[in-house]
Specification:
three-stranded antiparallel sheet; 3 strands; 142 residues; rod-shaped; mainly alpha
Length: 142
């Protein structure tokens, strides 16, 4: 009789422990912990349904969160990427302009060497001077 009473009391006490709520806490660093009391304020809390729990299996919401974190850069990262692309485009545009100005300057120098009249030489020297000024204005000449 006493055995039955003791086994009944043990069974009832175990069933109340097993029916307690289980809280799954995810820390800001991403570590998971399971506990029988609510999670701290800085942790993400999930109350799990009653039943068997496995720490190995992942729940669907966890997989979605991990996928989103891997795919999407933060706002600051996107803003930094935009600034880098903008700066890169500006540098490429400036380099293109400098190359065009240098090409014109080289062409004018060739024409100046082949010029035959004083008038043509004077005109090419003026154009070459204005080309030199354009190179300085575009910051192509250190």
């Amino acid at each position: 009789m006493y055995r039955r009473l003791i086994s009944l009391l043990c069974g009832l006490s175990l069933s109340t422990v097993l029916q307690a709520a289980v809280f799954k806490c995810i820390s800001p660093s991403g570590q998971h912990s399971y506990q029988d009391h609510p999670c701290p304020a800085d942790h993400v809390a999930h109350t799990l349904k009653r039943g068997y729990f496995s720490q190995i299996s992942r729940e669907p919401y966890q997989l979605d969160i991990v996928k989103l974190q891997q795919k999407q850069p933060t706002w600051q990262e996107r803003q930094l990427q935009r600034e880098q692309h903008k700066t890169q485009r500006q540098l490429q545009q400036a380099l293109k302009i400098c190359n065009q100005l240098r090409s014109r300057q080289h062409k004018l120098q060739g024409q100046l060497q082949r010029s035959r009249s004083a008038r043509q030489t004077l005109r090419l020297q003026e154009r070459l001077a204005s080309q030199q000024q354009a190179l300085q204005d575009a910051a192509c000449i250190p």
